[in-house]
Design brief:
With about 60 residues, the chain is mainly alpha-helical. The protein is about 50% helix and about 0% strand.
Length: about 60
Amino acid sequence: MPAKSAAQQKAAGAALSAKRGDTPKSDLKGASRSVEQSMTESELKALASTKRKGKPDHVSN
C-alpha cells in the first residue's frame, strides 16, 4: 500500500525506525505514534518506501 502524501510517508518512516529500535518510541508524536502501534513492520516498510516525488504534502480525507 503506497503512501498518499509526503506526510504519511514521513510518519511511516519514523514509526518504522521506532519499531526496529533505532529511535526511542517516546520520541514519536501524532500519527507516527498511532501508526507504530497499529501496523506491522512489513506494512510500515511498504508505506515508508514510497517515493515522495509528485506527492502532495498533505491529503484531506
